[in-house]
Specification:
Number of helices: 3
Oligomer: single chain
Distance between the termini: 43 Å
Low-confidence stretches: none
Number of strands: 5
Radius of gyration: 13 Å
Shape: globular
Strand order of the largest sheet: 1-5-4-3-2
Structural class: alpha+beta
Helix content: 25-40%
Order of helices and strands: HEHHEEEE
Length: 105
């Protein structure tokens, strides 16, 4: 019997709990974007900790562990940032990329 997916509220609760425990992994792409944009990992953490869903969580249609991909947005250190990330339930958050939503084409 298939288990029902997590609600947006459940995803948000797990993201905030795991981020609070510093259970975050970083993609190479994210680290490159941080350097390019002059941002710090702590700003990504803050976005994930206080932000709101700019794109609701979805489960990608692919094999492997269940994950919920989403985009969060927050004002951090006086500037808007968006973070694309995935939740691996009960395990960790994977930070994928970061960008300035005001400058996005």
């Amino acid at each position: 019997m298939a288990q029902p997916g997590l609600t947006n509220a459940e995803v948000l609760e797990q993201v905030r709990r795991l981020v609070g425990q510093r259970r975050v992994t970083w993609t190479r792409h994210l680290e490159e974007m941080l350097a390019e944009r002059g941002l710090a990992k702590d700003q990504v953490i803050d976005c994930l900790r206080i932000g709101y869903f700019e794109e609701d969580p979805v489960i990608p249609n692919r094999a492997g562990d269940i994950e919920y991909k989403f985009r969060m947005r927050a004002t951090v250190d006086g500037e808007q940032i968006s973070v694309v990330a995935s939740l691996i339930p009960q395990t960790r958050v994977v930070a994928i990329t970061v960008f300035d939503p005001e400058k996005r084409n």
